[in-house]
Design brief:
The protein is built from no helices and twelve strands. The termini are far apart. It has 141 residues and is mostly beta strands. It has a single domain, classed as Lipocalin (Beta Barrel), CATH 2.40.128. It is globular and about 40 Å long.
């Protein structure tokens, strides 16, 4: 699990591989479910995000994607400016903070995206096949 502090909010990111979109049997019901267009029937990776305000759950979302399976590790997500960026399968999901509304999704590797790093006005992602550089508007440079 990763934990971030953003203003008066605490953000937790964790792997939620048992989650099934649309199922009533999920142990937690997220406020938002974000999937890439290819993962409607199958998701290789599922990462849950919970935002707490003063120790009370404020908002939650889960990102689901198909591609190489990923987990949540030290560099799987970053909080930068007013957004959180999360590697999930071979994509990066960007969500506005604190409300977790989706900004964009972009594929940064053909197989898997392991980590994301912030550098000045751009991001770098480390994937299985490539290192990608992207701007804050989802454009790969």
């Amino acid at each position: 699990m990763l934990t971030f502090q953003y203003d008066k909010y605490k953000i937790e990111v964790r792997n939620d591989s048992m989650y099934t979109p649309g199922s009533a049997d999920n142990s937690f019901q997220y406020d938002f479910i974000y999937t890439d267009k290819d993962s409607i029937l199958y998701q290789a990776s599922k990462h849950g995000i919970k935002v707490y305000k003063y120790e009370e759950l404020y908002q939650s979302a889960i990102v689901c994607a198909v591609g190489g399976a990923t987990g949540v590790y030290d560099h799987s997500a970053i909080v930068d400016t007013d957004s959180i960026y999360i590697c999930c399968a071979n994509k990066v999901f960007s969500m506005a903070l604190p409300d977790l509304t989706l900004n964009w999704i972009v594929q940064t590797d053909h197989i898997t995206c392991f980590s994301i790093y912030s550098a000045a006005t751009v991001f770098f992602t480390h994937g299985e096949l490539q290192v990608s550089k992207l701007d804050r508007n989802d454009t790969i440079i």
